[in-house]
């Protein structure tokens, strides 16, 4: 047999077993907010409050995934996805915020998981992607320590019913947003604006994570994977001036170390406690909490979109706040003297600069600081002003370029020894983008919101080819 007749060796750009996925979240896609016994969440209340979401958009219908999940799983299969990251809606599963499970709510996830498995797609479930049952908000929400215990109860109910088929669980998605956008700048539900509350909520969310890990481990088989997803910031000082470096240290504390230290080392960073002493005495931290919070986890999920450039305030040239989250108030507690600036580079429709190096920087930092911990990119993607042209096609070359650049950063990081195990693109479908409503399209599948028609964009076909070949086009 000649050499030419031999099949070419399969070479891929990514590590063996690399997981190719896409991500969504319950409130952003499900709709059916009053069906199957679901009660309102804080996002129902918030989106129905005039002025909170652009154009008064709500998740009432969203992209109707609750009814169309079969069609959506078929789309995933067409893409060749190996895994699908979605979130469970707490108010569907435990509508009263405590007490027994609502079997009808669980039935929906049961059907979804079975449909995924029938198509060979691994389900990856997040327990909390921001939709706290409103009844718990009425009892104080994340300011009430008891909410953390309620979360653990909910985690048990979900794991008990679905743990035989879901092997990969994440407690919280981006607790930074829940605490700092929900309680600091108020651009997310529940829309409160008090830096002391943001820190209280932060701690109670981490406590919920720790208690949730314990609850999941008690219910799940020993080989189940339990994780947490953080939107860590690639913080860059504007210059090497000591004042700018100090601003970067402070933001790194509030964005990154305020999570990584307690979760992986069982302590809060001393400089963050000092920097925020004027805002909070941190008396909400009780004995034993940090041991709970630092229960071992199996991997860390990283969501990345754009870097964060900071500098010391320049009283001569005050700059408008530019941290990309909208709103008038700062989400950052005790951030006096810090300026947020846009990074260089082209911008997405969110106004977020495109900079894939930030992802590489974060991945290599995690490799160095948490040696051996498996990492997953649990979200990465971009919004652009996509439209369907007269032939029905949706051309999104900018999104393809964004994904290409960021996947190349993942490839480089893997080649440099980062234990990155998978990539979940945000998002499968255009959806309800929180306070920006339906105006920001992140999907690789276009959704005509009025007809609910799904049309894969060029980026969907591009991603399918990357998945099929395991390589980035040259
Ligand atoms: C992340 C959220 C996700 C989505 C993207 C664009 O912060 O986790 O739900 O809104 O941003």
From TrEMBL:
Is Iron-sulfur included in the keywords of this UniProt record?
no
Keyword list, A-Z = Carbohydrate metabolism, Cellulose degradation, Glycosidase, Hydrolase, Polysaccharide degradation
Lineage top rank: taxon: Bacteria
**EC number of the protein:** 3.2.1.21
Which is one Gene Ontology cellular component term of this protein?
cytosol
Q: Active site located where?
A: 174, 379
Catalytic reactions on record: Hydrolysis of terminal, non-reducing beta-D-glucosyl residues with release of beta-D-glucose
- Enzyme type, top EC level: hydrolase
InterPro entries in the cross-refs: GH, GH_1_N_CS, Glyco_hydro_1, Glyco_hydro_1_AS, Glyco_hydro_1_beta-glucosidase
Identify the residues that bind substrate: 28, 129, 173, 305, 426, 433-434
Q: Its Gene Ontology biological processes?
A: cellulose catabolic process
Q: Which Gene Ontology MF annotations are present?
A: beta-glucosidase activity
Concerning its family, UniProt says: Belongs to the glycosyl hydrolase 1 family.
Q: Which PANTHER family match?
A: GLYCOSYL HYDROLASE, LP05116P
Name of the protein in question: Beta-glucosidase
Q: Which organism is it from?
A: Kitasatospora sp. CMC57
């Amino acid at each position: 047999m000649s050499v030419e007749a031999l099949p070419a060796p399969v070479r891929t750009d990514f590590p063996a077993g690399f997981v190719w996925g896409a991500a969504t979240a319950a409130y952003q896609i499900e709709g059916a907010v009053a069906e199957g016994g679901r009660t309102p969440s804080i996002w129902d209340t918030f989106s129905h409050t005039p002025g909170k979401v652009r154009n008064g958009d709500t998740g009432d219908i969203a992209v109707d995934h609750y009814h169309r999940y079969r069609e959506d799983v078929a789309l995933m299969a067409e893409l060749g996805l190996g895994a699908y990251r979605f979130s469970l809606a707490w108010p569907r599963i435990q509508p009263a915020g405590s007490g027994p499970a609502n079997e009808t709510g669980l039935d929906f996830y049961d059907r979804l998981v079975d449909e995924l498995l029938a198509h060979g797609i691994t389900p990856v479930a997040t327990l909390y992607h921001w939709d706290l049952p409103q009844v718990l908000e009425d009892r104080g929400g994340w300011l009430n320590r008891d909410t953390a215990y309620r979360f653990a109860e909910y985690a048990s109910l979900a794991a008990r019913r679905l743990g035989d088929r879901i092997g990969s669980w994440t407690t919280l998605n981006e607790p930074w947003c829940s605490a700092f956008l929900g309680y600091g700048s108020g651009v997310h539900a529940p829309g409160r604006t008090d830096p002391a509350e943001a820190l209280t909520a932060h701690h109670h969310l981490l406590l919920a994570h720790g208690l949730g890990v314990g609850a999941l481990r008690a219910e799940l088989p020993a080989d189940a994977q339990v994780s947490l997803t953080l939107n860590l910031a690639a913080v860059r000082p504007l210059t090497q001036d000591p004042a700018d470096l100090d601003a970067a240290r402070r933001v790194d504390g509030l964005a990154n170390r305020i999570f990584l230290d307690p979760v992986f080392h069982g302590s809060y960073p001393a400089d963050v406690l000092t920097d925020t002493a004027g805002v909070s005495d941190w008396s909400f931290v009780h004995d034993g909490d940090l041991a709970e919070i630092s229960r071992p986890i199996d991997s860390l999920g990283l969501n990345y979109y754009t870097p964060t450039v900071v500098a010391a305030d320049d009283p001569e040239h005050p700059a408008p706040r530019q941290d990309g989250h909208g709103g008038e108030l700062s989400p950052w507690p005790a951030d006096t003297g810090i300026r947020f600036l846009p990074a260089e580079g082209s911008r997405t429709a969110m106004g977020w600069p495109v900079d894939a190096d930030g992802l590489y920087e974060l991945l290599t930092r995690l490799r160095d600081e948490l040696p051996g911990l498996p990492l997953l990119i649990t979200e990465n993607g971009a919004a652009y002003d996509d439209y369907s042209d007269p032939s029905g096609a949706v051309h999104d070359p900018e999104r393809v370029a964004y994904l290409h650049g960021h996947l190349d950063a993942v490839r480089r990081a893997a080649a440099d020894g980062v234990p990155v195990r998978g990539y979940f693109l945000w998002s499968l479908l255009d959806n309800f983008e929180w306070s920006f409503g339906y105006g920001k399209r992140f999907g690789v599948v276009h959704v005509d919101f009025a007809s609910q028609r799904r049309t894969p964009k060029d980026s969907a076909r591009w991603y399918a080819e990357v998945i099929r070949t395991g390589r980035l086009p040259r």
